[in-house]
Amino acid sequence: MLSGDRIRKLRNARGYSLRDMAVILEMTPSHISKIERNERGTSVEMLDVISKHFKVTVDYLMGKVDDPQLTVETKIKIEEETKELYDILEKLPPERRKEIMDKVLTYVKIEHPDL
Hints:
Blueprint: H1 4-13, H2 18-25, H3 29-36, H4 44-54, H5 58-61, H6 72-90, H7 94-111
């Protein structure tokens, strides 16, 4: 289901009024308002336009994922990879598991300091 609240938050974050958004999407402000209040749906084509304009995924607009850049397929792949890693770590002695986790966290902090 479409998450109108996310569209409203994206619109507000850009400083767009309902009128501004209506011009961008070629709709009436009333129509946009109904979409944001989840009183009216929108077409897949319009979701695509909105997602491209705000540089987010359609899955995010639909409320399927919480990360604006993540798709459901990517989320599933990450969950599968995480499960695989968990299964391996679970078999190790606690001290070895901690040592590996410390190394992984150090690597991530060095390679991706913005995280």
